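At your convenience, could you comment on the folded chain following this short note?
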Amino acid sequence: MARFIYTKAKEKAMTGQFNLISDSIKAALVANTYTPNATTDEFYSTIAAHVLDEDITLTSKSVAGGAFDAADVTWSAVAAGDIALGVVTYVDTGNPATSILLHFNGDVSGFPFTTNGSDVTVNWDNGAFKIFAF
């Protein structure tokens, strides 16, 4: 699959519209009904209908060497019968129409897969890339 930082997120980062450490950053597990578009997708409202479970607030966030990292995430008992495509990270403003999409990762080990009611754990990259790098 693919992994990319959304173009609009890059623009917003370059103009100081969010802070990866102090803002609420969440991870959403998305279904294969979502067709990621790096260039035009901008806000959470674009992916909301494709999210498979409750979003997870990232903890232990850090920025070093141009890379963003946080603690690994686990969705508990994800309902069976959907195909999980990947993970989207975003800045949660409390409003889906203004919550900024940051990064799509469809290269997570084991993705895509059919959910079966069990937990879904995503271990972020432990190399230089981490969750994403500019």
Summary: The chain has one domain: 3-123. The mean pLDDT is 96. The chain is about 5% helix and 30% strand. The first helix runs from residue 7 to 14.
